[in-house]
Amino acid sequence: MPMARRCPFDPPEEYRGLRGADPIHRIRLPSGDYGWLVTRFADVRQVLSDARFSHRNDLIEPPVPPDPITEWVPTPPDRGTFNMMDAPDHTRYRRMLTRYFSSGRTERMADRIAEIANEQVDRLEAAGTEADLVADYAVPLAGRVICEMLGVPESEREQLQRDVDTTFCLTVDVHVAYKAILRIGEAVERIVDDRLAAAVRLGSGDAPDVLTDLAVRGDLDAEELRSITGVLVIGGMDTTANMLGLGALALLRNPEQLRLFRSGSDNGQVDELLRWLTISQWGASRRALEDVVVGAAADGTGGQPVRAGELVVLALNAANRDAAAFDDPDRLDLTRAPSGHVAFGHGAHLCIGHHLARVTLRVGWTVLFSRLPKLRVTVPDSDLRMRDEMTHYGVHELPVAFG
């Protein structure tokens, strides 16, 4: 899988050539088996919306070596791990959770997210006139939002954030990664036990957070609650934090686009940043359950036959730079409305937190750039440590000044 980048904001250059000359490209997986790498927007959306391609945990082999813990072994998903299931199990769990992540509900959280963002800026200013925008703003903001929404106690959050980051690193020592995974499991168990106890105390009243409400409703047992908690905490912390940091860097390096954002931010501008930056390093993977032709023309001709059992890797970042879907796709343009981008995936497994992510990003950047009008990066791009070795792309540190 291509990973090297010439520019901190562009996908690996190899994707451009593949998208034009070999958009459904044969690849060799770490196991030695062969699969397909898909780079065109239309083809990616086709696979993501086709139920003949599975997302089950026991069928999806990681496309990038090495696995930090062990060689890949097909393992059925734990009960409640809805993001690694197919229908009908995936559908059942997702229906239970959708109410908490609806557009209306997450928009009503905007004022509270702004309070958290302003508190983080207050801390920046109290500490001086320089900061690391990742560690001092992006990470705590994203972590506080998802943890407060779910009901994760403050005492668990800092270590949990560090351990989540560790598990997403491809180059981490195997023993370090294993210990991080164990600590996450132990933390999740404590969190669920705490919320189950809160549900007992509450009885039938209004629950203050998602996990307590799920416990009060009683549709899930403790094992399912633990799995769901792990999925939501891990997904909500890492992705939004990385996008907050990388998006801030992109706006600071594109002054005209920053001016447009400051003049009136909206979800369309957030979507353009999501499209342009697409932090998923190697996208999504699916396993064909039967023979399927991918990429056929409208009249049914052409396309690439994918055989039952073959793995398909979908390069979301390449698809979001496809000129067949977006005019001048390599240009960041906050005046465009990039409808249908695949930064959150597509189809049945569209990221369940996409509305929450948009609101958090919009509010987080709005507060940051309104409160700190002199904000600037203090090092050249060549001195930045990019997250090339991580599951989700971004910047490790972002040194800034604002005095």
Automatic annotation (TrEMBL):
Region Disordered: which residues?
Answer: 59-80
The answer to whether the entry has keyword Oxidoreductase is yes
- Recall the GO molecular function terms of this protein's record: heme binding; iron ion binding; monooxygenase activity; oxidoreductase activity, acting on paired donors, with incorporation or reduction of molecular oxygen
Q: Which domain of life is it from?
A: Bacteria
Pfam families per the record? p450
Output the CDD domains linked to this UniProt entry: CYP105-like
Question: Which PROSITE patterns does the record associate with it?
Answer: CYTOCHROME_P450
State the UniProt keywords alphabetically: Heme, Iron, Metal-binding, Monooxygenase, Oxidoreductase
Cofactor names = heme
PANTHER family reported for this sequence: CYTOCHROME P450 YJIB-RELATED, P450, PUTATIVE (EUROFUNG)-RELATED
The family note in this entry says: Belongs to the cytochrome P450 family.
Identify this protein by name.
Cytochrome P450
What is the organism field in this record?
Nocardia terpenica
